Amino acid sequence: MTVSESKSSYAQQVRLSKAQEVRLGWVEALRARALKAFDEKGFPDKSWESWRYFTPSKLLSSAFEKPVPAELLSKEDPIFAGARCRIVFVDGLFSPKLSSQAPGNVDFSELWSGLFNHPELETRLGRDLDKEDNPFSLINTFAFEDGALIMLPSGRQALEPLHLFFFTTGTRGPVASVPRILLVAEEGAEVAVVARFYGGNHGQNSFENAVAEIYADAGARVRWTNLQIQENESGSLFLQTRAYLKEKAELDMVTVTRGREITRNEIRAELEGPGAQCRISGLSVLSGRSQAHQALSVLHRSPGAVSRQIYKNLLDGQSRAEFNSLAEVCPGAQKSDSHQLNKNLLLSDDARVYSRPKLKIYADDVQAAHGSATGQADPGELFYLRSRGLDLRTARFVLAYGFAEEILSLIPEKEVRAEIEASVKNAVHAMVRG
Question: Do residue 269 and residue 390 come from a single domain?
Answer without folding.
Answer: no
